[in-house]
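JOB MANIFEST
job_type = single_chain_structure
chain_count = 1
residues = 232
[input]
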Amino acid sequence: MRIDVWLDIRCPNCYIAKRKFQIALERFQHADKIQINWRSYELSPAITAQPGKSVYEYLADLKARSIEWSHQIHRQVAEAAEEVGLQYNFDKAIIANSFDAHRLLQYSKTVNMASATLDRLYYAYFTEGINIADVRELERLAVSAGLPAREVHEVLSTSKFEAEVRADEKAAEKIVRGVPFFLFNNIRTVSGGHSVDSFLLQLQEGWQQYLRLVMDPPATGDDDYCPIDGFC
């Protein structure tokens, strides 16, 4: 069974959802038959690094709300992260563009290291307060995640994997309105954060759907079947 997951490295709820989803996957009896495709999505493609501005100020300005409101929202998110063993240090977070980090994610998929790379990037951004738009930092993080240094340097010093990031974002235009966003079997969608039990239920229901598709695949040209990467 295939599951496509769109997320952004700057998205705090995506990191939490990824952790909950993976806990659910560990409890799923058919986990070894699941193919997960981690896909790129930029919440703010035009954002630039703002090392002198706090995430509290950034969100307050973005939403035209008070700084007190922003602090409260961030506290709530940090508490939700802590429930699944994640530590968010928003006081240290550096606002930064995530495009190069997504290029790194795309490369990591080619060597079957996407999940580990994502975890390293998330930890760097939300816990360590590292600037994920800094190419030197990205190289260091990639190597610490287990990626080969020479290949990582080549990717980040060129425009490699830009097309793959853009392709993911183009595909997302059809169905994704926010992240995290899960697509089961190229048909069934699940958006937003869920509990571990809810993710486990989604996996079970997705598996039953997958079995039905294997037994009775949709006919070519079926107007009711419109896979995200295909044609209708």
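[summary]
Confidence is low (pLDDT under 50) at residues 220-232.
DSSP finds nine helices and four strands in the chain.
exit_status = 0
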